Amino acid sequence: MSTPAPLCIAMHAADNVAIVANDGGLPAGTVLPGGLVLLDKVPQAHKVALVDIPEGGAVRRYNVAIGYAIQSIAAGSWVHERLLHMPEARALDGLPMATVKPPAMEPLEGYTFEGYRNADGSVGTRNILAITQTVQCVAGVTAFAVQRIKAELLPRYPHVDDVVALEHGYGCGVAIDAPDAAVPIRTLRNISLNPNFGGEVMVVSLGCEKLQPERLLPPGSIPLVDQRTLQQAPLDVVCLQDEAHVGFMSMVESILRQAEEHLERLNARRRETVPASELVVGVQCGGSDAFSGVTANPAVGFCTDLLVRAGATVMFSEVTEVRDGIDQLTARAATPEVAQALIDQMAWYDAYLARGRVDRSANTTPGNKQGGLSNIVEKAMGSIVKSGTAPISGVLAPGAKLAQKGLVYAATPASDFICGTLQLAAGMNLHVFTTGRGTPYGLAACPVIKVATRSDLARRWHDLMDVNAGRIADGQASIEDVGWELFRLMLDVASGRRKTWAEHWKLHNALVLFNPAPVT
Amino acid sequence: MSTPAPLCIAMHAADNVAIVANDGGLPAGTVLPGGLVLLDKVPQAHKVALVDIPEGGAVRRYNVAIGYAIQSIAAGSWVHERLLHMPEARALDGLPMATVKPPAMEPLEGYTFEGYRNADGSVGTRNILAITQTVQCVAGVTAFAVQRIKAELLPRYPHVDDVVALEHGYGCGVAIDAPDAAVPIRTLRNISLNPNFGGEVMVVSLGCEKLQPERLLPPGSIPLVDQRTLQQAPLDVVCLQDEAHVGFMSMVESILRQAEEHLERLNARRRETVPASELVVGVQCGGSDAFSGVTANPAVGFCTDLLVRAGATVMFSEVTEVRDGIDQLTARAATPEVAQALIDQMAWYDAYLARGRVDRSANTTPGNKQGGLSNIVEKAMGSIVKSGTAPISGVLAPGAKLAQKGLVYAATPASDFICGTLQLAAGMNLHVFTTGRGTPYGLAACPVIKVATRSDLARRWHDLMDVNAGRIADGQASIEDVGWELFRLMLDVASGRRKTWAEHWKLHNALVLFNPAPVT
Ligand SMILES: [Ca+2]
Ligand SMILES: [Ca+2]
Ligand SMILES: [Ca+2]
Ligand SMILES: [Ca+2]
Ligand SMILES: [Ca+2]
User: Looking at CA atoms only, how far is residue A445 from chain B in angstroms?
Assistant: First the structure.
């Protein structure tokens, strides 16, 4: 096996660092293309100084100062995070407001997928019976009932993909009237209305919990119409404390009886051809490394542009991973109002973190640093690229439900499982997740397409990663190639023609709510 | 069927209200024993005024002013929560510090149970393989592996009761260096060391997460000794990102291989006779009503005294449910230092709630109010009685591990699932849970004995409630009778001779961590 040629990747002509692409990194003494000689061993995905950088000088990547040199750094040196001062966060005043007017994007027409059309106009990519729970107290009984539904009922309803208990840790023992309690409550409400659940809402309630069913799903929140009367259908609630329940099995039987009504309706549905504009894609990254911003995230960004051109909805998220690029985002906002909404979300999160005596720098992980990401500024620049180049047409508060198409900033924590939970609430019907270090992330409610940033990871995790964007660093594919591959895979997965690896193995992460309010 | 006689229960001779005990409440016009005539229909468990109470007058229950009359209330009226002003919280200065010197309690000797003695001296009531997880990211893979362990391995190890994945929503995407992050981290650490897990600690880690295995379980935190070398055994970690893992099944096989080592050791253990002093009992109440403080909680309190006399450990918890009785607790503290530690926990929680712009009154639920509890003061007086009469010998911060016996105040939120999670971390090997409205609460790691406050609930939930304390209100048993019944049942359950209903149905609530720090 011949040694591959040394390969370094710079993101912008003005950058004074590049990252080493080779598996295993490069040893000191390596001569890079162009003649620069490495002074240190540089691990894969880590940065090398392309020129001498004086003490206090800006270290530039993505044409942004990701830090300032603590000491002078000679060309050819390994630029690791201990050599950098992190810049202050960009102040939230004086930002460019909707100043970028990109040329209109050419519409992308003729792409379709096979989806489940819902009564409210949304489209599901899966046909799932979801069982909403008001409170953690009922989780054990509901899990017991779901096992029986899967064993006894589901085989009789072959057009239903799955039955999913929407378990969570909220609902009682919480300060439900605290101002910030609106976030977890609307998250749970809106998850119940996710397009993959076909508009069939059934609730298991305890009875004495703070989050009463009528508070979770007040009249009017569910677009359910009784077909016989054309009136708003009553909320379908199984209340365990109902006096009619005598004995445990009577509760289980109530849940099965109600589930069967919904299964019958779900089972009558069929996929139909719908335009690609019905995709509602949530993108996020997790277990990131310095390749995330070089391979997988730019490919996702290219695909985001394709989706927006096709009239679809794409959400990007992760507040602490865009905070340092807020000026790029406000500039790209479609209107000054959208720019202001972006600023409002950043300001809210800054204050939230400050209450806990931390700031955005709490985001980076040991794995990020091992993976070559020096700090949150560098990580953010690589994260933000998932959003492509389209104007930002809207902003969603955490847990809110989408009401528009195009590129939307859905404000969420960067935590993979919390971000995914909030994107489900927004109405996501397909999830794209890029990873450099590797994570077996999956959701029960929605297919998750996982994109590896490195070929090494894609090879080792061959039955967990759905797309290998590492081929971009290997020189075997362009960003455009991988972006198109991802776009086509999305249509296949959305249509149910392909399963993701997470679906194949039934790997499901928990719903983890964002609750900025106290518990009691 | 003859109509039962009207029955009202007052808690103290100085009280000016009593609660109606009869199923279905009592109609207006009912003549109570003693001649008082009801002016209103009074629901079961709700309060009736025993005398005329002037506007502004104190409404006394448990010999405490649970509120002040908003308007004058005539004798025989229904005293519901809308008629009461809630008192301010007791200030945390000037409290009586260890002023009560109760007569020494007579030791209770000769009671034993059959338990699993651990290397660190603690005793398990169950023999469970727990799989610790550093982060939610690995939950799907671990759940897959646990299914295979249960199907393929567990049948070969008949002395092992269960395999439990310690799933949680923490570990990454969190501000891990925030001051309050110490709470969830020590909670997870100490749960891994719960006596029911036999000292066998195995960890599944992703690799890039913030909560690295060495941070979760630093050297010295596990009392594991390699029997060949008598050195500290290395932490047993399966890291999914390990380069040796090629393909999903290689990760699963790694977990199975490691699990088998621990299963072999656990399977070699046998129960032995140990004194009742090895019980570590967590008591809490959930879904409370006005009977909680009349029947179930006093019976638990009597049993708490029995346990303390037997040399065992009893934890009571739920900060917002003792806050209004802090003067009783500081007075009962064994030393002024313990009293101060109580005050410190109350002050910390007051500040925590204030940061979220709420206070202790956020505790009560719709079910509490329907159940006759007017406010948190009344609820607290009924909750605190679970602690019996013994001196308080120690105070635990949330998530900390017990280091002493006797009656301990373990500070936790009142949320049932969060309180239970924190009591597991403290080292609980048996859980007692009282409920008036009814909850099917259970834990995978520890038996939960559920005590009903009302006979009506005990009858309807006959295969979920383990003890019926409602017989106290029915006049069929005394507090002492039920306290002794509970004590004997505890020894049977701890010995594995009896299963709780939650164990019978395998009803498990999730571990829900108390994380007062921000997520990122
Ligand atoms: Ca990310
Ligand atoms: Ca993420
Ligand atoms: Ca309670
Ligand atoms: Ca509780
Ligand atoms: Ca779960």
Answer: 14
Contact B510 A286 (CB under 8 A): no
Comparing alpha-carbon positions, the chain A residue that sits nearest to B243 is A460
- The domain segmentation of chain B, as residue ranges, is 1-88, 113-271, 280-505
B113-271 carries CATH number 3.40.50: yes
- Residue B226 CB burial class (10 angstroms; 0-12, 13-18, ≥19): exposed
Interface residue of B208, B240, B456 to substitute, partner A, most A CBs within 10 Å: B208
Instruction: Point out which residues pair with B454 in neighbouring strands.
Output: none
Residue pointed to by tokens 């964007």: A469
For residue A395, give how far its alpha carbon lies from the nearest alpha carbon of chain B (Å): 19
Tokens of A180: 């910030």
Tokens encoding A240 = 């365990």
Tens place of pLDDT per residue across chain B (520 aa):
467 899 999 999 999 999 999 989 999 999 999 899 999 999 999 999 999 999 999 999 999 999 999 999 999 999 999 999 999 999 999 999 999 988 889 999 999 999 999 999 999 999 999 999 999 999 999 999 999 999 999 999 999 999 999 999 999 999 999 999 999 999 999 999 999 999 999 999 999 999 999 999 998 887 656 656 666 678 999 999 999 999 999 999 999 999 999 999 999 999 999 999 999 999 999 999 889 999 999 999 999 999 999 999 999 999 999 999 999 999 999 999 999 999 999 999 999 999 999 999 888 888 888 989 999 999 999 999 999 999 999 999 999 999 999 999 999 999 999 999 999 999 999 999 999 999 999 999 999 999 999 999 999 999 999 999 999 999 999 999 999 999 999 999 999 999 999 999 999 999 999 999 999 9
Spatial separation of the C-alpha atoms in residues B439 and B429, rounded to whole Å: 20
In chain A, which residue's Cα lies nearest the Cα of B460? Answer: A246
Q: Which of A208, A212, A284, A373 to mutate to test the interface with B (most CBs of B within 10 A)?
A: A208
Surrounding ion ligand 4 within 5 Å at CB are B 284, 286, 414, 416, 419
Alpha helices (H) in B81-219, listed in sequence order: 139-148, 182-192, 213-216
Closest residue, chain B, to A435 (C-alpha): B208
Say whether A247 and B413 touch across the interface (CB within 8 A): no
CATH number of the A115-271 domain: 3.40.50
Closest chain A C-alpha to B191 CA, distance in angstroms: 18
Query: Residue B315 corresponds to which tokens in the numbers above?
Result: 């934890």
B1-88 has which CATH code? 2.30.130.110
Q: Domain spanning A1-85: which CATH class is it, in words?
A: mainly beta
CA of B379 to the centre of ligand 4 (A): 11
Q: Phi-psi category of B63—alpha, beta or left, where left has phi over 0 and alpha has psi -120 to 50?
A: left
Contact B140 A502 (CB under 8 A): yes
List chain B residues with CB under 8 Å of A179.
357
Number of Cβ within a 10 Å radius of residue A460: 20
Q: DSSP assignment, residue B26?
A: B
Do the domains spanning B1-88 and B113-271 agree at the CATH topology level? Answer: no
- Which residue among A140, A368, A461 sits closest to B509, beta carbon to beta carbon? A140
Packing angle of the helix pair A416-426, A182-192 (nearest 10 deg)? 60
Neighbours of ion ligand 3 (CB under 5 A): B 285, 318, 321, 414
Nearest ligand atom owner, CA of B418: 4
Q: Which ligand is nearest to the CA of A136?
A: 5
